[in-house]
Structure formats: C-alpha cells, structure tokens
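Internal ticket #5521
Category: modeling
Description: The requester needs a full-assembly model to guide mutagenesis choices. All entity lines are attached below as received. Residue total reported by intake: 667.
Assigned to: D.W.
Attached entities:
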Amino acid sequence: MTFTTIVRRWLPVLMIAAVLMTLSAPLVSAQDGTEPRTITDAMGRQVTLDAAPQRVVGMSASINEMLFAIGVTPAGVTDGMDYPAEAASLPTFGSGYQPDLEALAALEPDLIVANLQLNAQFLDKLEAIAPTIAVLTIFPKDVPANVRLLGQATWRDTQADFLATAYEDFLTLTAALGTGKEGPSILIIVGTLDVPNYGKSETYLGDMAKLLGATNIADGEADAGPFPGYAQLSIERILEADPDFIFTVTRGADTPMAETMTTDAVWSALSAVQNGSVYELDGRLFVEAPGPRFVEAILQLYGIFYGEGM
Amino acid sequence: MGDAVAPTSAAQTLSQAHRRLAFRVLIIILCGLLLAAAMIVALGSGSQSIPAADVIRALTDPASVKKSTEIIIHQVRLPRALVGALVGMNLAIAGTMLQGVVRSPLGDPYILGVSAGGGLAAATTTLLIDNFPPEAVPAAAFVGSLIGALIVYAVAWDSTGVSTTRLALAGVALTSMMGAFTTTVVVMSVEGGGQIIFQWLVGGLYTAGWPEYDLIRFYSLAGLIIALLLANRANVLALGDDVAQGLGLRVEQTRFLMSATAAILAGSAVAAAGLIAFVGLLVPYFARRLVGSDHRFLIPASGLLGAALMVWSDTAARVTFPHLFGVTSIEFPVGIITAIIGGPLFLWLVRARRSAW
C-alpha cells in the first residue's frame, strides 16, 4: 500500500475523531464551578474531594465541634454529644472507637473526618463508606491547624481562616499571660482514686495549665497506661510534691474524687485538699473534646489560678 | 450352601460401604447448606434492617439499590461474613490436624498454645516493628504458631508418646506465658488505645474487611489443600505409631507436616481475627460424630462446620446478644460467643469422657 492510499483511507476517520475531540473538550474541562481538591491529612494521606461535601460526619465530639464552629452541621454525630444544643437532635452512629459501621453508612456521608487516635485501626472500613481524612487534636494549638484543614475540606476556607486566626491570637495572649508568672504547681487526676491516671503537660488539660505558667508535678515521669501523656505516681511522691491545685476528672465512680479525697486519710493530708483547692472539672470540656471550647477552658483555669479577674 | 452364602455377604458388605459413603457425602452437603444458611442470615442481619429483596439486589445489581445499602452489604457485611467463614474453617481444620498429631481430643490451637504463639508474633510485628508490611503478618503468625506447637509438643512428649494431661498442662503454661508477653507488647505500644487492642485479644471480626479477606484467603486455601493431601497419612497415623511405621509411614515427618498445616491455618486466623477459643476443639468433635474419623471426610466436614459456626456466632455477637442484653450500641466480640458455647461444652466433655483422659 502506498502512503497516499493509507492517508486517503484513514483521513475521514481521523477528521471525525478530531471533530469529536474538540466537541467534547468543553465537556471535559467544564466544571460545575468547584475544582477538585486534594487534602493532606494528619497521617500524610492525600485525599481528593471532587466537590464541596454536603454531608460531613465527624468521628468524635472534638471534630464535630470544630465542624459546627466553621458553620458545617454534621450529618451525624457520636453518642452522647450534647454541646451545642443542636447536636443532641442529630442522628447518632455509636461511639468513636467502635462506631456502628452500618448506621454510619446509612447516613450516606460524602466526607468522614476520623480521629487518628481512635480510628487508625479501621480507616479502611471508613474509606469504604466515604472519602476519609484523619485529624489529630491533642493540644489547644492543634485546634486552629485542624480548623483550617476542615475549612479546606469543606470549601469554607474564609470562615476557617477567620476563626483559626482568632484562636491563634488567643493562644499567643494566653502564653503571654503565663510567662513571667510564678505559676502554681498542679496535679491532674483522670479516673478514680483507685485507678488514677495522672496527666502530664503532654495532655490537653496539662498543656493549657502549662501555657498559663503552672508546673505539673507529674512531668518527667514515663508514660504509663493506655493513653499517651499520662503517668503513674506513687502517693508518697504526691505527698512530697504537695501541689497547690488538684484538678480531678472523675470517670467510673459516682462520687467526684474531689469529695472522696476529703474523707480519705492519706489524700486529706495534702494542703490542696485542706485549702479547698481541689476542683472537679467537666470531663467533656477539659479532657475528652479538645476543640473550639479551649477558649472557655483556659478562661476557667485562669480564673482558678489567678483569681476571679475574668 | 457355603457357595450361596459367600457372594451374598460380600455384596452386602459392599452395599453397606456404599451406603456409608453416601451418608457421609450427604452429611457434608448438609454442612455446606448450614454454612450457606449462615451466610444468608449474616448478610441479612445488622443494625440497619434491610429487606431481603434489597439484600439480593445489592449483590446481583448494585446500581439498583441505595448507595448506603450497597456499601453496607458489600463493604460491611459481606467481607465480614467471608472472613468469619474462613477463620472458622481454618480453626476447625487446625483442630482436626492437631487432634491427629496428639491423638487426643484436646488438640485445639487455642488450648495447645498454637494460637497464643501466633498472637504474640502478630502483636509483636504489628505493634513493635515500624512499617512492617501488613501482608506479612499471617506469615509471622504462622512462624509464631509453629514455635508454639513445637514447644508444647517437645515439653509434653516422651518415649510413651504424648499424654493428654501433659499436653493440657504444657498448653496452659504456654498460653499463659505467650498471653503475658502479648499483653506486655500491647501495653508498650500505647498508640493503639486500650479498647481496640482488647477487642483483638478477645477475638473479633469488627475490623474484618476486604483487606483481611485478601490476607487470609491464600493461607486458607493452601492449608485446606495441604490438609486434604495429608488426609490419607493422617488416617494411617491414627492407628498408632508402631502400626503406622510398620505400614511404611514416616511418622515424625507426617506429624510435623500436620502440625505445620495447623500452624498455617491457626496463625492466619489469629492474624485476621485475633484469639478465638474452642472452635478447633468442638467442631472436630462433632464432625467425628457425624462422619467418622476418616480424614478424607472429616476435614471437609470440620471445615464447613467450623465456617458455619463462626458465621452464626458472629451474627449472634453483633446482632442477637446486644438486643438480648439491651445494649444495642456495642458489639460483643465473637470470641466471647465461642467461649460461652465452648467452655461449658468442654467442661461437659471432660466430665463425660473422664475415663479417656
């Protein structure tokens, strides 16, 4: 076959193909106004979202509070979430560490925001339901960073940026308040007096206290127990250190530790117990839901440390 | 008269044999049907009530059902049921193999510390070694299981063979030891979070998905095929070491191969679903009562029954028990169910067959 024969045979086909391609080009490049985005989450995973998600689900109270803060109402929340008031009437899907995957799938989310600490083991099961990004919120300073990430993932960059900047400024102010102050010494106990976990500065509450200039008597001890940032202390060590303030978050007993301490022969020897400087704190606000309400938490701590000035 | 009698009795014997064979095949088919029923119930049960028609359509024509239904059936229930079936099959056949090796009804991967060895290996590689590839965990569990089996066997064996008592004691000791090490590993690696590791230690299919299925199916298939290939040798071994040797069987080699097969099967099951007790003990016991001790029938029967048991137990664990106790927001780990069924049955076994132990 000669060259011209080939061309003559194939030219019509090529021309039709060329016409089709140019016709379809607008179809390919025309977007519905939103470009797909690729988010890099806390594990370094790259997740591509095609359009602004309409049904977002957060796997912990902390994440859902951050979503509310940027104006996103989650499609479903974890059990027992009662703040903000709106959250109590949203559909639930179980706990954060063992969610009912069927109930979660039934909510038909188009974005799942997972808690890296709780959900790492079954991220692939969450991925099977909807695109999933994992975030980690341990310290107050993680909150503005995660708010920005969530803003990026929900196409609410502007709201997120406003909010994150305000949080960062507040944290700068707090740190400034804390420096140069002769801060009190504190002890943080989460659990019960029989099974205590002593929080160090590497916890949410511990970090807030440290920002305000307090020193934590558990710092420097090795991690112990199922969650990072908590140590074991002997009661002798506590008696010797005699902290100025004791913060308790009672989980697993009906009577708050602050009360049981006053009747316990050993604990009542501490000066904090005798001076009435033992405070039972709200578990959700100070331990379990690190999030936008750190502002409220820090204000409360400041009031406790340095007087009712706030 | 003599001539008239002989052909009849030979024919009778032959037809008896045919009847037995037909009966056994029938039993195996029934076990298969039991498994099929278990799978169907598992696919239809869950916290979200999905009508049967939708379940069928989700499997045959996924585009015709709601997206959430399709995800629930395909990504949540189906892989979980499949993994459950494979885990059950693995443990049951491992139990059959081990019972052949130790010639005792106490041959069970959990009791003999085989599962515990696999569990320790899986925990160590997953939690303590950075970037250990997940696909290699069943292989690591296999090595751990094999070491566990060898230790127990070596401790319990002497020139008279393996006594049930020594086996039980060695198994208990090894399981406790390996369990303590595993707990140590778990405590040392804090980022897992207490709740999830507890789930794994008790034996759960909560995290079973397509990745776990892909992980286990090769080992299940390999273990099943090797077990079937060893069936004839296992039958000969059951006659006793001296007789078997006299018949030309390489006794130690056969025992080692059977133990290794049990280790592959138990190790991969532990890697996929954690420590699950009693399946390897009870299923072969019942399978023997149904199809006899011929391993060519015993192995398929055990495998199918074990799979069925696991799938039924998992459905009970995730749907029935929470409803029964009124705590629908949590899921019971399937290991608890098998322990609830298996524990009392085992105790009854010890009592009822006390002359044999």
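Resolution: model delivered.
Comment from assignee: Residues 51 and 64 of chain A are 20 Å apart (CA to CA).
Ticket closed.
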